[in-house]
């Protein structure tokens, strides 16, 4: 008395379909080979004394760490340090912001 109930045809079809999909995924993984490598953002900031770099910064209306990081493909923490360095050298000035974000403008 009892025992496992037999599966309906629809349930059997679903199970077979899932198995087929898993096999296709495994084959795609094998064919793909090595996955693409993400290129990490640069750790080194651009040269603060380079005229080309300063020219690009002057074209931007507002300088935020995110905008600079996007423009020069560097990390946001590196962009913050870069902006602080430029402010100390007098190339840019701070116009607003708070403790979490600083907004600069080129002179």
Walk me through this protein's architecture.
With 107 residues, the protein is mainly α. It has two domains: 7-36; 51-106, Arc Repressor Mutant, subunit A (Orthogonal Bundle), CATH 1.10.10. It is 51% helix and 10% strand. The chain contains four helices and two strands, in the order H-H-H-H-E-E. A two-stranded antiparallel ribbon has the order 1-2. Helix 3 (65-72) packs across helix 4 (76-89). The relative contact order is 0.12. The model has no long low-confidence stretch (mean pLDDT 87).
Secondary-structure map:
Layout: H1 9-32, H2 51-59, H3 65-72, H4 76-89, E1 92-97, E2 102-106
Antiparallel strand pairs: 1-2
Q: In CATH, what is the homologous superfamily of the largest domain?
A: Winged helix-like DNA-binding domain superfamily/Winged helix DNA-binding domain
Class of the largest domain, according to the CATH hierarchy? Mainly Alpha
Q: Give the number of domains.
A: 2
The gross shape turns out to be elongated
Short summary:
By secondary structure, this protein is mostly helical. It contains four helices and two strands, in the order H-H-H-H-E-E.
What keyword list fits this structure?
107 residues; 10% strand; Arc Repressor Mutant, subunit A; elongated; 2 domains; 51% helix; 4 helices; two-stranded antiparallel ribbon; mainly alpha
């Amino acid at each position: 008395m009892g025992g496992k109930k037999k599966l309906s045809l629809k349930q059997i079809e679903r199970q077979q379909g899932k198995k087929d999909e898993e096999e296709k995924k495994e084959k795609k993984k094998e064919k793909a080979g090595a996955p693409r490598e993400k290129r990490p953002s640069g750790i080194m900031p651009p040269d603060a004394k380079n005229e080309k770099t300063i020219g690009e910064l002057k074209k931007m209306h507002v300088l935020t760490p995110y905008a600079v990081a996007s423009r020069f493909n560097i990390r946001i923490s590196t962009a913050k340090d870069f902006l602080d360095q430029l402010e100390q050298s007098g190339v840019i000035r701070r116009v607003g912001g708070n403790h979490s974000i600083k907004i600069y403008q080129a002179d």
